[in-house]
Amino acid sequence: MAERRETSRFFMGVDLGQASDPTAIAIVRRVKFEHQDGFTWCEEKPSIFQVGHLERVPLHTPYPAIVTRVRHLMSHPICAGNVDLSIDQTGVGGPVADMFRQAGIDFTGVVITGGQEETSPSANLAHVPKLKLVSHLQALLHEGRLQSRSRDRACAAIALDLGRAPDVAGLCLRGNCRTPSIRIPAHDRKCMAS
Fold first, then answer.
1. Where do the DSSP E strands lie in the chain?
2. What 8-state DSSP symbol labels residue 179?
3. How far is it, in rounded angstroms, from Cα 13 to Cα 191?
């Protein structure tokens, strides 16, 4: 009988706000199910993603306080040393990302684009189409692989909004890739952070 295991990795996303948009922080746990085949661990079934924390930081919170909050969350005993951080560098993200670097916090910067191709101009920076972000969330949701461990009503609202959003993957297959039609109205920042 093959040996089985579950492994977890945490991912934190920070969507930096501006004057009228609050910053959002999401922490997602990926659970991989594997079995041993000889000396190799192989995926037994698709991973699931559990949203364990969603937070909308109050408007006008100074960016240094956001850096401190993120450092605090990353050091939580549940995920300390086992968490990858991504920061939305679209808009104000670039200068604020420098604050994270100065604080010694490792992260991958993400610039959300209106294009269709994902690029990586450097090792810690990715340009990712909004279309790809939303379609991946929709696919995980429809497959039952995006789950909420939180009692936060925003988790349910995001799922509902994603379910109402256009089927962006279907639009693309029909040659109709237009990112302006992709809008997760009430909870866009939390959705992008996750």
1. 4-15, 24-37, 40-56, 83-88, 108-113, 119-122, 125-129, 146-148
2. G
3. 10
**CA 5, CA 190: separation in Å to the nearest integer?**
31
DSSP-based helix, strand, coil % in the chain, nearest 5: 30, 35, 35
Q: Are 158 and 191 in contact (CB under 8 A)?
A: yes
- Amino acid symbol at 6: E
Tokens 């959002």 map to which residue? 24
pTM for the model: 0.78
What is the β-pairing status of strands 108-113 and 125-129? parallel
Q: Give the tens place of pLDDT for each residue, 117-176.
A: 999 888 899 999 988 888 888 888 888 898 886 555 555 555 555 555 444 444 443 344
Here the tokens at position 66 are 């956001």
Query: Distance (Å, rounded) from C-alpha 154 to C-alpha 55?
Result: 9
Beta bridge partners of 43: 34
Second-level CATH architecture of 4-193: 2-Layer Sandwich (3.30)
Q: Are 110 and 87 in contact (CB under 8 A)?
A: yes
Classified as helix, coil or strand, 157 is helix
